């Protein structure tokens, strides 16, 4: 079957008119290829130890550090709005070289997971960040060796203990964001050995060494000096991102992720084309902040920009998206 070919010179007008399908909102709705629904969104939240009331984060307009009480309240709102999940990050009062707070059952992240599970049960997928950087006094995602380099295998031992502590706290999906080699295998083995065979793993497989994490480092009050280029991916590499995702699948990842999102839509598409497991993307703090800051100045329409970003990330292959704007957009009826 062949469609009519394009216009020949001398025609009065084109016979092929794609604009017909854009003529009304109803028509556009009928031909829309990509859906954006609340259940495809995950809200990342920060929980700070020792807070009585939520505190705004200067570089992330509309985003706050939560107390244990206020995180319960926002998780209830997220569940009521029909979001798919919530991703918890802890901001501890004290940090040390090995990130002890990450494995302490009373540590802020584990306490937050228990509080949120008590509030929402299974109506949201309760997720925890499985990484040491919020808990170490040097701010790296792993522990350091005698030369001050990030020690891969020593970090894995900490991740294994962290996985079990988070599962004991009730988290249902653990977000491995440390970019240590073998972390998915180690977390899976530790969970299985402890009987948590139903706790799932979200591997931040293709996590790039990105400037777009800047506001996040404010949000978690990160002490990091230097950067994460010995473990996070080089922004120049797409093939390597695909390889990391494949390795995580082999190691038992239930879901793989690409992060950041907007500057890596090509990587997302390539991973989505070959992944046998669901693929998620994380629209990170700096991506949120860019839109929010420009919108505050009246330079762009913030709502439209957020929706366009999210639908583009879905179009590029993400089954679900982590977004700081997700709850606000759903509560205001912009995503339904
Ligand atoms: C590591 C982690 C980071 C983010 C999510 N998990 C920080 C980093 O790798 O530097 C960044 C998310 C964001 O910028 O929104 N715990």
TrEMBL record:
Its EC number is 4.2.1.24. It catalyses: 2 5-aminolevulinate = porphobilinogen + 2 H2O + H(+). SUPFAM superfamilies: Aldolase (SSF51569). PROSITE patterns: D_ALA_DEHYDRATASE. Keywords: Heme biosynthesis, Lyase, Porphyrin biosynthesis. Pathway: Porphyrin-containing compound metabolism; protoporphyrin-IX biosynthesis; coproporphyrinogen-III from 5-aminolevulinate: step 1/4. One of its GO terms (molecular function) is porphobilinogen synthase activity. Homooctamer. Catalyzes an early step in the biosynthesis of tetrapyrroles. Binds two molecules of 5-aminolevulinate per subunit, each at a distinct site, and catalyzes their condensation to form porphobilinogen. Belongs to the ALAD family. This is Delta-aminolevulinic acid dehydratase.
């Amino acid at each position: 079957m062949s469609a009519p070919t394009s216009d020949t010179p001398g025609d009065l007008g084109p016979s092929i008119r794609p604009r017909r399908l854009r003529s009304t909102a109803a028509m556009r709705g009928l031909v829309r290829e990509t859906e954006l629904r609340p259940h495809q969104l995950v809200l990342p939240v920060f929980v700070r130890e020792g807070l009585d009331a939520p505190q705004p984060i200067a570089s992330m307009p509309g985003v706050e550090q939560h107390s244990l009480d206020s995180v319960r309240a926002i998780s209830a709102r997220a569940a009521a709005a029909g979001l798919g999940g919530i991703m918890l990050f802890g901001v501890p009062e004290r940090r040390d070289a090995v990130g002890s707070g990450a494995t302490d059952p009373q540590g802020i992240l584990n306490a937050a997971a228990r509080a949120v599970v008590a509030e929402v049960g299974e109506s949201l997928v309760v997720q925890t960040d499985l990484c040491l950087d919020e808990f170490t006094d040097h701010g790296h995602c792993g522990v350091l060796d005698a030369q001050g380099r990030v020690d891969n295998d020593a970090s894995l031992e900490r991740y294994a203990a962290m996985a079990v502590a988070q599962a004991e706290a009730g988290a249902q999906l653990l977000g491995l964001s440390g970019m240590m080699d073998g972390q998915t295998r180690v977390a899976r083995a530790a969970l299985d050995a402890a009987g948590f065979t139903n706790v799932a793993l979200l591997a931040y497989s293709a996590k790039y060494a990105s400037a777009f994490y800047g506001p996040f480092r404010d949000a978690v009050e990160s002490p990091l000096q230097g950067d994460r280029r010995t473990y996070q991916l080089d922004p120049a590499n797409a093939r390597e991102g695909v390889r990391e995702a494949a390795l995580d699948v082999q190691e038992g990842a239930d879901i793989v992720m690409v992060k950041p999102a907007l500057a890596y839509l090509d990587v997302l598409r390539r991973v989505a084309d070959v992944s046998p497991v669901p693929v998620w993307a994380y629209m990170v703090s700096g991506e949120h902040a860019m839109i929010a800051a420009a919108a505050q100045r009246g330079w762009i329409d913030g709502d439209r920009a957020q929706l366009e970003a999210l639908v583009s990330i879905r179009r590029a292959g993400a089954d679900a998206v982590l977004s700081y704007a997700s709850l606000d957009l759903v509560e205001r009826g912009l995503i339904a």
